[in-house]
Write a structure and sequence with these properties.
108 residues, MamF_MmsF, elongated, transmembrane helix, membrane, Chloroplast import component protein (Tic20), transmembrane
Length: 108
């Protein structure tokens, strides 16, 4: 198990960098199908899609309170996911992590 984590750690960390990092991590993990990397790729993909969808919705409102709340929410999800990947843990991000695992279950 520990060897699996070490082998997938670089792809897991790269997945959180940007949406392009998630795509790169997907292709890095395409041959090996590391379960640790796949878990974090699904989490990162969910965070990035949430960012784009909620960002489009939040942009309708002209309120700094709504905008800052959105940014704080995304930064917390992103930071939590990145830190757990660095620590070698498979913890779902708060609120949406379980849904990300279900929705993107085909991402290996």
């Amino acid at each position: 198990m520990n060897n699996t984590i070490e082998n997938g750690k670089s792809a897991a960390i790269v997945a959180y960098l940007t949406i392009i990092g998630t795509i790169i991590a997907y292709f890095m993990n395409n041959d090996t199908k590391n379960s640790f990397a796949s878990f974090h790729i699904r989490q990162a993909l969910g965070i990035h899609i949430t960012y784009f969808v909620l960002g489009a919705f939040v942009s309708i409102f002209d309120s700094w309170m709504v905008s800052y709340s959105f940014w704080i929410f995304i930064i917390i999800l992103w930071g939590y996911g990145l830190v757990t990947a660095i620590q070698g843990e498979q913890k779902e991000v708060p609120l949406l992590g379980a849904q990300f695992q279900k929705w993107f279950s085909t991402v290996n």
